[in-house]
Design brief:
By secondary structure, the protein is of the alpha+beta class. The protein has a domain of about 55 residues. Helices cover about 35% and strands about 15% of the residues. It contains 2 helices and 3 strands; from the N terminus they run βββαα. The chain has a 3-stranded antiparallel β-sheet with strand order 1-2-3, with no helix packed on it. A hairpin with a 5-residue loop joins β1 and β2. The protein is elongated, with a radius of gyration of 15 Å.
């Protein structure tokens, strides 16, 4: 699996694949990698929440929940994170 992170202009900022990765040393100095880490943590929290819902057959997911992107976060029904609102 390949993971790519692009900025708002569509430029590749960071990537990871089974054979290696890509980023620029300049991104460490200007704070881009710190913002990238925060975005990846939020994405991982979302993925874990979706996985927990899919693995729990007794749970009823609110499929009508909001899917509007707000500040880079996509709300996931049935998941709570300290970085998002319910």
């Amino acid at each position: 699996m390949r993971v790519e992170v692009r900025d708002d202009d569509g430029e590749l900022v960071w990537s990871r694949s089974p054979v290696g990765g890509f980023t620029s040393n300049a991104y460490g100095a200007d704070g881009t990698l710190n913002r990238l880490e925060q975005a990846l943590e939020k994405a991982l929290d979302q993925c874990r929440g979706e996985l927990a819902i899919s693995m729990n057959s007794d749970r009823v997911a609110d499929l009508g929940g909001a899917t509007t992107q707000i500040n880079g976060d996509i709300p996931v029904a049935g998941m709570w994170s300290s970085n998002t609102c319910r």
